[in-house]
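Structure tokens please, single chain.
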Amino acid sequence: MAGCGFVTLSINSTEGGSVTSPGEGTFTYFYPQCCPGDQLVAEAEEGYRFVEWTGDGGLPDNADAATTYIIIGRDVSITANFVHECSPMVSAGGLHTVGLKDNRRVFAVGDNSHGQCDVGGWTDITQVAGGWLHTVGLKSDGTLIAVGDNAAGQCKVGNWMDITQVAAGTHHTVGVKSNGTVVAAGDDSYGQCNVGNWMGITQVAAGGGHTVALKPDGTVVAVGNNDDGQCDVSSWTGITRIAAGGSHTLGLKSNGTVVAVGNNDYGQCNVSNWTDITQVVAGWYHTAGLKSKGTVVAVGDSEFGQCNVGNWRNIVQVTAGLYHTAGLESSGTVVAAGYNYYGQCDVCGWMNIAQVAAGWGHTVGLRDYRNVVAVGNNEFGQCDVGGWANITQVATSMYYGSSTLGLKANGSVAHAGCLGYVAGWRDIVQVDAGDEHVVGLKSDGTVVAAGDNSDGQCDVGGWTDITQVAAGFRHTAGVKSDGAVVAVGDNSHGQCDVGGWTDITQVAGGWLHTVGLKADGTAVAVGYNGCGPCNVGNWTGIIQIAAGFEHTVGLKDDGTVVDTRFNVGSWTNIVQVSAGYAHTVGVKDDGTVVAVGSNAYGQCDFGTWMLIS
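Here you go.
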């Protein structure tokens, strides 16, 4: 835009929230007082956060937040969508562990013999609860979803409505309704589901064969198995929180002390000297308490180390399973101790990585909530991405003096390292980096490029109708909407001889070779083949390709991977791959990352990529 004029911003919203600033409707801004690329702050109604803005451009800088920024460099019409704000949490089931992310998605590890960990498709969840062999999720609309063992009907909660809190016992499920009444389903052999006459309840807890409920006045009621006195709670007062174990019950008092009744064979009720407690949880034969300073105490059976929590710090929530204990740290990481036969304590791999990019001696990971992590060689600052936010795609150069690019939700590009040519780019939808040049695909199908152009690798000004771009060492390739491919730059080894390719859906550029993925799942390649990077003629079932320095990687539709150089035959459940100078990286469907190849600079060290919130 040049000279003086007006730009208009139209903001709409869907049900569930409202845009409080600048408001909803159509706004007019006079140029040049409002310069192209200027930002307005948008704030969601208290208790909500934006998610999945839609429109014809100018989308917010961070689409998933309570406060975000709108680019207003031209006429824009956008619509805001909302979800309730959600706090992450963990819940330990019998032999599995469930985690709720702050984006309301759920993941689980451990015993899946009855499908109790099949929660990958859950969305809009606000609370999770793990039972012995089942898992329950509370949705923001007050309904429930459940998976796992249903032999006793504990998963028959599909018709429940208006639920505000849920608890999962051994073989039963209990829910509190917004009017303070309680519903229950599942095993009732001890009367643990006889809750129909309860009223004015604020929290429920489900144990081995009993159910406990907290009333607003701090008193407690209980039904079900009372063989060990676990239901003898009628005299309790001043209780603010409850927990139910295999056959014992806990009550947290308003002064931070704890009371307990029931089976004490392992000392799980020896909590009378506890002080400064903010949350209590009960396993089968053990008890854990969270202290106000973020430390944790535990008593009871510790045969499998489930009470070895004395060194935990900065914990904000705890949960106890059959024989294990898990804690959520303030940083969003998860720690666990105890029985791990089914992998229920394997929470250090909860890394939330949505995409990876492998460079010369470094690897970059994009977390699914849009911030970025990096490991490896940082000689040129290519790993200095800690302050990045609102990133939707990452790209790296696989060559010495490498750079990292981050595509932001507003169409601009962040960079770290050597290639700082992208500061003025706008309306970008995909980026890639070569040796000393960078390429960006714009929303209108045109392409921009900057940096070294000694071989013509940046001569993309006339390209149109492009759907994807790739940058090789000193060449650039682009896929057109009709499946044809164009390429410019160094062609010393025929790496730009792609004029006859058809039906291509993706291209990747290596050192001296180019690879194309066809719509039928096969692959084609041209260029230098010294180490076999072009040996892809027999590949089938491919859904994504990546080109390294002298190797090519293909992701198959069954989640396995093929590689012309490295042994990736054992990889499974992969959802995205990236090829670096001398290493290959893959993202698994649980958000963890695997790698093979050179680790000279620590580019395969992903052990700290653990943030889950």
